[in-house]
Amino acid sequence: AETLQIVVSSSPVPSHANDKESYLWRSHTGGFGTTLESRGSCKRNQGIENQKKSERKVSSAVSNMSRRYDSRTTIFSPEGRLYQVEYAMEAIGNAGSAIGILAKDGVVLIGEKKVTSKLLQTSTSAEKMYKIDDHVACAVAGIMSDANILINTARVQAQRYTFMYQEPMPVEQLVQSLCDTKQGYTQFGGLRPFGVSFLFAGWDKNHGFQLYMSDPSGNYGGWKAAAVGANNQAAQSILKQDYKDDASREEVVELALKVLSKTMDSTSLTSEKLELAEVFLTPSGSVQYHVHSPESLTKLLVKHGVTQPAAETS
Amino acid sequence: MECVFGLVGDGFAIVAADTSAVHSILVHKNNEDKIMVLDSHKLIAASGEPGDRVQFTEYVQKNVSLYQFRNGIPLTTAAAANFTRGELATALRKNPYSVNILMAGYDKEAGASLYYIDYIATLHKVDKGAFGYGSYFSLSTMDRHYRSDMSVEEAIELVDKCILEIRSRLVIAPPNFVIKIVDKDGAREHAWRQSVQDVTTASL
């Protein structure tokens, strides 16, 4: 006997008036499709399905569903995901990596440069590291043009605070403020999220040296060591093993170089492919943001023995 | 005319304000508290247009509270003073507040401090300051007797000298004053100086 299945759900009735929504029919596989399958086509499709099963990729089920929900950035998928935000994070996963590590007397930021051409004017352009205010700097991973907008926003927010209170903006408040901006792009306006992750390094009188990581969703966290960009999970796991509390800046620089040399895709580490910056206090008590020159970087690479290609790791 | 004055001592700041609420020739009340406790370690002594005075000082107080709720740390006295000045400055060329403020506060790093903020958004960090007609007398008296790092007793003596001068020399002198102090232990009322008390019919 044939059975008629009635599905009762709380989702609204689909209609052609709402963009790409259409009637969905239950297919023989248990999923939903836009066409009604009769028993005849069912049997035919079953044959084809069995043939294709071996060739089918695992993610096809997901991408079939997601295609309906990722055209607009500001809506949830049925599984409760924000696809645009996740796609933004995918984009960052292909970008040059950046690592930040907290030391007892400062914060170290290191970044892998993707654009390495002899023709690039390195003295005037920075790719990974930017100064937001006298006491806060950041490293960037992702789409550079998006990053520039956000860096400018952060700079304006920091100055606006100083204009109002005549004091430097506490680092966490700056990060929070920027993340509130990023969150807006995941909830209203119909614009895509920013494809950038940041590592903020700074000092303030409330909490001393701090390191924060933020992502396109607008989430942020305070970290002792963090990595963004390509191979960030590998970097993060190495950091988890090798990070020590209260290390000095020199030890932290060494750790940063070692971790980056292990996780970078390129075969050898040279000063042209890196940017290294430190945030620390001068003896007089003012915050200093210092980007290493290529010569200084080369010396450090030689000193810590990471200029050779990473032959020991397989 | 409203009298507000204050000074900084050794690890504390003290402010005094008259307590009469006047409308043309009528005294509404003579126990109006014009020194608002901004937060645990800050005071605002304000004089000027009564509506503006209450509206503006409450606005500053609520913004200071909001900052503390949002960020988990209180504003420093300097930051609060600059914020207040900024609000007066922004409103100045549109819809000005007619309020003069002496902001007193205690911070662990900076110690006790006093800020003079007038109705056209002037900001000065001072050791002693005063507003109103009474300032002619209280500033002169303070200039004569003030020393840095006075004790609380010495400072109260000086405040009393100022109040005496105001009472004897100002033609419509306010009869009552309230004195508040802020130090490492917080902001609190210190004393009243009353020569006239509200009389109820029952006591006649």
From TrEMBL, chain A:
One of its GO terms (biological process) is ubiquitin-dependent protein catabolic process. GO terms for cellular component: nucleus; proteasome core complex, alpha-subunit complex. It is found in: Nucleus. The keyword Nucleus applies. SMART domains: Proteasome_A_N (SM00948). Residues 69-91 form the Proteasome alpha-type subunits domain. The keyword Zinc does not apply. Gene3D superfamilies: Glutamine Phosphoribosylpyrophosphate, subunit 1, domain 1 (3.60.20.10). InterPro entries: Ntn_hydrolases_N (IPR029055), Proteasome_alpha (IPR050115), Proteasome_alpha-type (IPR023332), Proteasome_asu_N (IPR000426), Proteasome_bsu_CS (IPR016050), Proteasome_sua/b (IPR001353). The proteasome is a multicatalytic proteinase complex which is characterized by its ability to cleave peptides with Arg, Phe, Tyr, Leu, and Glu adjacent to the leaving group at neutral or slightly basic pH. The proteasome has an ATP-dependent proteolytic activity. Belongs to the peptidase T1A family. Component of the 20S core complex of the 26S proteasome. The 26S proteasome is composed of a core protease (CP), known as the 20S proteasome, capped at one or both ends by the 19S regulatory particle (RP/PA700). The 20S proteasome core is composed of 28 subunits that are arranged in four stacked rings, resulting in a barrel-shaped structure. The two end rings are each formed by seven alpha subunits, and the two central rings are each formed by seven beta subunits. The catalytic chamber with the active sites is on the inside of the barrel. This is Proteasome alpha-type subunits domain-containing protein. The lineage of its organism: Eukaryota, Viridiplantae, Streptophyta, Embryophyta, Tracheophyta.
UniProtKB/TrEMBL annotation, chain B:
Its main location: cytoplasm. It comes from Brassica napus (Rape). One of its GO terms (cellular component) is nucleus. It is found in: Cytoplasm; Nucleus. Non-catalytic component of the proteasome, a multicatalytic proteinase complex which is characterized by its ability to cleave peptides with Arg, Phe, Tyr, Leu, and Glu adjacent to the leaving group at neutral or slightly basic pH. The proteasome has an ATP-dependent proteolytic activity. One of its GO terms (biological process) is proteasome-mediated ubiquitin-dependent protein catabolic process. It comes from the Eukaryota. Belongs to the peptidase T1B family. Component of the proteasome complex. InterPro entries: Ntn_hydrolases_N (IPR029055), Proteasome_alpha (IPR050115), Proteasome_beta2 (IPR035206), Proteasome_bsu_CS (IPR016050), Proteasome_sua/b (IPR001353), Proteasome_suB-type (IPR023333). It holds the Pfam family Proteasome. Keywords: Cytoplasm, Nucleus, Proteasome. The keyword Nucleus applies. This is Proteasome subunit beta.
